[in-house]
Amino acid sequence: MKISVPKGTKDILPEEMASWRKVEGLYTDVMLNAGYGEIRIPVFEYTELFDRGVGDTTDIVQKEMYTFEDKGGRSLTLRPEGTAGIARSYIENGMSSLPQPVKLFYKITAYRYENVQKGRYREFNQMGAEIIGADSPNADVELISILGNFFGKLGIGDLRLEINSIGCNVCRPAYNELLRDYYKDRIEGMCSDCKRRYETNPLRLIDCKEEKCLEASRDVPYITDNLCEDCASHFSNVKTGLDRLDIEYNVNKQIVRGLDYYKKTVFEFVSANVGTQGTVCGGGRYDGLIDSLGGSDAPGVGFSMGTERLMMELESRKLLPSDERSPEIYFVTVGEKPYAYARKISCALRKADIYSEMDLLGRSVKAQMKDANRKNAKYVVVMGEEEISQNKAEILVMETGERKDVSLDSIYKRIVEKKV
Ligand code: HAM
Fold it and tell me: Which DSSP category does 53 fall into?
């Protein structure tokens, strides 16, 4: 019986990894050039971190977490996202005593028990960044502008940016009352998720995608129109900051995001190519998160993009970058001695960071040549017993078909002296 991968997971094979390496490498460069330090956090954390961090009224915590008890009876959960773990790490590693703000980026896998469909998996990858310790709208603008830069480098700088503000602890309670009042006579006809959220998190009723709920929300008052002075001024400054950088955006009052920690700015980059939800990247401000996890009152803002969705976007536009390599030199050998000699040179080449290839299957010269062609080798060096005894080898320039005899000593010397 064959065993397949678990539902919602997949292998990323070498030919795809060529694009992943390029995209993740570009992301790393972009973040390092903006002064962000890379962080790695554990795949699993104590469940309580996500209950309190992501929020126990969210779909993620209520329905989607991979939670298990370890042999010591502790409740652990595979991270459904990175922000909560990074907030924990900020507190645990005393990062509040570092010069503020602390700017971090990451590339992680995340796990959510979701309905699997196009662009929605149970194990997926995220590339993200967080700024902790800056409450200025400039931090929100910086992150969005970095994303614009990154998408531009990939050739998808035209992804649609949607922004909104969802208020804070000052304006949210009064707005929640306004919402409950609005939905009071409508909630009966709405879905069970909305009924559940009516008391605990009425903000989420606004972005329910069920037909009957969309209809019920048609005339809903938006928090964007009910912000306190501080939130309104923050939002206005974010918009001014984006305008100054000529970054196009659309204020979408329906964006509320699915995680409880968000306050003030929220944003998404969306596209029609990445599945029903269309979100390539989501982020926002989470002032109060560090505090709620037992740390200082450091504010925070960040984003993450789904790497698989980003790849889908690039693929649908035929813009997938490649990091395929081809051998500089392919050694075609006949006999044990030539093989051993070629192996020695090949090792020296690899040590000098030059890609060289050799046969591992004892193949015929013809089959080795075919392999060199398939791998798109630049030069083929042919060595047999006779060549070795005469201290020479034949070099074939694959592009032109030109052939030359060279002395083995000269090849070896040039490599060892790094004059290759
Ligand atoms: P999120 O919106 O839950 O936010 O996820 C961010 C991105 O991860 C989404 O826009 C999407 O591209 C990708 N994603 C989410 N779920 C899946 C899935 N099941 N399959 C494939 N891709 C998926 C967060 O995770 C926040 N931590 C973002 C953030 C960072 N906010 C502040 N800092």
Answer: I
32 C-alpha to ligand 1 centroid (Å): 22
pLDDT digits (tens, 9 = 90+) for 333-362: 999 999 999 999 999 999 989 999 999 999
Indicate whether residue 305 lines ligand 1 (CB < 6 A): yes
Q: What is the pLDDT of residues 163-178, one digit of tens each?
A: 999 999 999 999 999 9
Mean pLDDT of 192-199: 90
Same domain, 299 and 160: yes
Element (H, E) at 266: strand 263-270
354 shares a domain with 300: no
- Cα separation, 232 vs 326, in Å, equals 55
> Would you call 357 helix, strand, or coil by DSSP?
strand
Residue 340's CATH number: 3.40.50.800
pTM above 0.85, yes or no: yes
Q: Tell me how many degrees the CA angle 262-266-269 measures, rounded to the nearest 5.
A: 135
Residue count of the chain, please give it. Answer: 420
Radius of gyration of the chain, Cα coordinates, nearest whole angstrom: 28
272, part of any domain: yes
CB-ligand 1 contact for 172 (6 Å cutoff): no
